[in-house]
User: Fold this.
Amino acid sequence: MNLSLISLEIWVVVLGLVLLLADFWMPAERRRFLGYGAIAALMMLLVTNLGDCATGTAFNGMFVEDGLAVFFKRFFIVAAILVLFMSVEFSDPGCAGGFAEASRIASGISEYYSLVVFALSGMLFAASANNFAMLFVSIELITVTFYVLTSFQRNRLVSLEAGVKYLILGALSSAFMVYGIALVWGTTGKLNFNELALVASQFAGNKIFLLGIVLVLVGLGFKIAAFPFQIWAPDVYQGAPTPTTAFLAVGSKAAGFVLLLRVLFTAIPSVSAHWANPLIIISGITILYGNLCALPQRNLKRLLGYSSIAHAGYLLLGVAALSASGQAAILYYLSGYLFTVLGAFTVIVLVMRHLDSEDISGLAGLNQRSPLLASTLALALVSLAGIPPLAGFFGKILLLKAVIQQAQVTANHGYYCLAFTALAGVVISLYYYFGVIRAIYWSKDAPADSSPILLSGPAKVTLATCIAGMFWIGLFPNTVLNLATEAVKALKM
Amino acid sequence: MAAIVLVFVSRNYRVIIRAVALLATFISMLLAVKMFCQFVTGQAGYQFEQQIPWVESLGISYHVGVDGLNVGLILMGAIVAFAAACCSFEIQSREKEFYILLLVMTGGILGAFASLDLFFFYFLHELALVPTFIMIGVWGRGERKNYATFQITLYLSVGALIALIGLIALYLQSGANTFDIPKLTEYVQAHPLAAHSQNFIFPLLLFGFGILVSLWPFHTWAPLGYGSAPSPTAMLHAGVLKKFGLYGLIRIALPLLPQAAQHWMQILAWLCLGNILYVGWVAMRQRNLNRLIGNSSVAHMGFVFLGIASLNLIGVTGAVVIMIAHGFLAALTFALSGYIYRQTGTLEMGELGGLARKLPFIGAALLMAALAGCGLPGFANFVGEVTVFFGAWKAFPVVTGLALWGALMIGALYMLRAMRNVLHGPLPEKWAGITDASNVWRKLPYALLLASLLIFGCFPRLLTEKIMPDAGKIVKMAAENVGGVVAGNARSRGHEPAPSNQLDSQSRLTSAATEPK
Assistant:
């Protein structure tokens, strides 16, 4: 067994513990800056991780370090770094205007940091999970920390409500998943994905085995907020503290996708090859549901919640394509999505901490108040809508290309329908994204407060990083695309 | 070529002042003129080529070059861009953003026309489209500006996305694993696509591009959108960007999907009749000058579609000539209506009248634009329209007959009526204080566009000679059996009738330009 393979995870867990302990010795008013320490530590881990990419398996094949795992680990660490930046800003008591909610975050901020870091470790394990037990443990590590992160603003009713909703539905989906794992193990006697792949075709007609797999997928569908397991998403996105929402939208969703890819294409490729039609239907409905429900939303976070459902649908295009190019497209799309969504939520943090509501009208006149914030949010929304030259555009092209390619290879007309559904979704989404952009740039209602918004240095760095990321991935897709193509070679199909 | 233009644009991102925007478009115009003059007629292949690989695994590369088809379009785009930048003095608020968007749009347009790579072709067009939406949204005019913004955004996005699916399907179906248009064309010539996939992809491209070009019945975004747009945006979009869809049809759909093209052209011919007759009829009822111009520009697109639908050398050549001529014309009319709007604050034709007395230069230019719009000989539009009709006559005698009638009667009717309402008659009291374009700078864009119209109207050979060989190649691929045998006719027909009216219009131009102010 090779412990060095999981050194990254060990260091991350240690970092979480150190953050918790440091809480004892830090004076309360300086705890906020522990976040920068955590960011620095994660950056160091990221840099050292870039160098060595030892591959192999550990713990009897439970834990696998391959191209896919490495890709997603870097992804998660970058996401966590940006989320930590965001939390530091979010907890800034000087800007909170005396709101109790923010001061609650401020007093327990080091807890918050360490919970983010623990959730990160769960995601790292998820990226390497090669066994149903490992899958379950990592999912639980992520979900349990998110229960706390979601309801962190204890004296804010919506936050608690979001936490309870997430807890109940999350627990339910975990229960489904355990049950499914038990059924799979009961029928096949295998938990390891590679071993399961060898025998899965024998069980393709076994109803109990299939039920087990479907139940596992239900649990993963909950994580990525795919239809029909998406009910929690808007409420939780709206209620949770904004950095939590951002991490949920990026990290948790990506963790769901890496596990989904592993289960479908490593554990049961022979079974999932026949599932094109159900996947097409789920993907199509998710896209339409997310986009249509986002149309009437006025709350910005809720709108992004629905749009994240829609984006889960777009990502499922790549899953439904059942091809390597589809999988690579997912990875590419997620990388663009990372910078885009985190950029958008950072702006929300910075703008909304002055306001009670998160209504879109709060953005009125943002262009005059802070051109940087305005342009970041506008670029992020434009990228989400999939307009060149930003990241979202090329990602969508890749996903569509994978789907149409599959349509031509398999002559399954469902794929064409799916491609058109995705287009309909894009057009619908243009309407509400442009609605927000209109509020920013040429809103009729006069802004309630037209004082310029002052940004701290780190906030500017975060925003600049997000913008640079969006442009870099959109304009020079070669690097990321090659990485993604290499990464999905780890999958069996 | 366009690479240079694009570099200019990105460098100008932070530069605020109007002078720089003018300079950039002016330089790009000079470069385009230089390129146009250096272009070697009839040489095989592409000229001024430049290729930089972008995503090797998908066969995408940044590949630009010009041949006879796009050399004129690029020239037209660059001239219109310069004129639009000149006309941008009407923008008073947030100038910096406006000029940035204008330059992005120009770069996108010229790049899209020069691009020889399917992906960049689409990518740059989208890049040019986004500023259009924003410009209409922020600097647009009229009460229904928000509605117009959303309508144009959604319509054009739907069109672009449908075309995108078609392009991706084309890329995958060809199996060549390259987005490079010349390579793709060669490959498809060697391995033609199966008929059923052609019949699937072609309508996607036709209607996708059709929506972008306001093909009837998908044209409703155009009049309202142009009515609400600030005039530089309307100039660039109606004049140049809209031609992208047509260019896409000629460059991509015809040569790569020949069988389906022949199959669908019948339908296209009837649809373009909708453009010419129905929209012309709508234009007659307009009370607002900008809406009228918008509708007439939609109607003109019908001729181009007719030329494409004819699938023979004369028709396609004529279509390209109209594209270029209409680019100048649309830009000119929108620039003029923008000027009138800025002076009077309204474009309702009921309220205007007698403006020719106060605005001799603008009035004369508008009148000439209207005459060009009616297809009067001497203007480039006439050349294109006549060529298209001769080309289309063989393929669709009925449609052509109807279209001809529509072009002459309806076009003349609404154009001349509008001119009477706007320029002649009693001058309402309230417009007593308006002033004409006062100095050379203000007159420059209009004069430039008019001059281009006249030059290409009187010497259409400049264009047709360049277009002909490449149009011939495409037509040959699209319709082997129709063939391009009647090449000689079109060329002579093109410039024959011009001289008679040349003097007349020339003198009108000079008198208008020298009118003392």
